Amino acid sequence: MPIEKEINISLFDQLTLIERIEREIERGGIEAAKKEIEIMKNEINRKLYQKPPLDGNNS
């Protein structure tokens, strides 16, 4: 079970993603937000599939 610190980090990351999307909607509308979402998905995929994988013990 994740410890409180890990949960908080995850929630802050999620909040950051939402804020990025909101900024893009304000700046450029839906198309800009879609582009930002695609960038975020690519960033997440890089983290998920990096070699060696993140296992939480690297810090």
List keywords for this structure.
single chain; mainly alpha; 76% helix
Walk me through what this model shows:
This protein has 59 residues and is mainly α. The protein contains one helix and no strands. It has one helix at 4-48. The longest helix has 45 residues, at 4-48. The protein is flat, with a radius of gyration of 14 Å. The mean pLDDT is 85.
Output the helix-strand order: H
**Biggest sheet features:** none
- Number of discrete helical segments: 1
Quantity of strands, as a count = 0
Compact description:
By secondary structure, the protein is mainly alpha-helical. The chain has one helix at residues 4-48.
Task: Indicate the topology.
Layout: H1 4-48
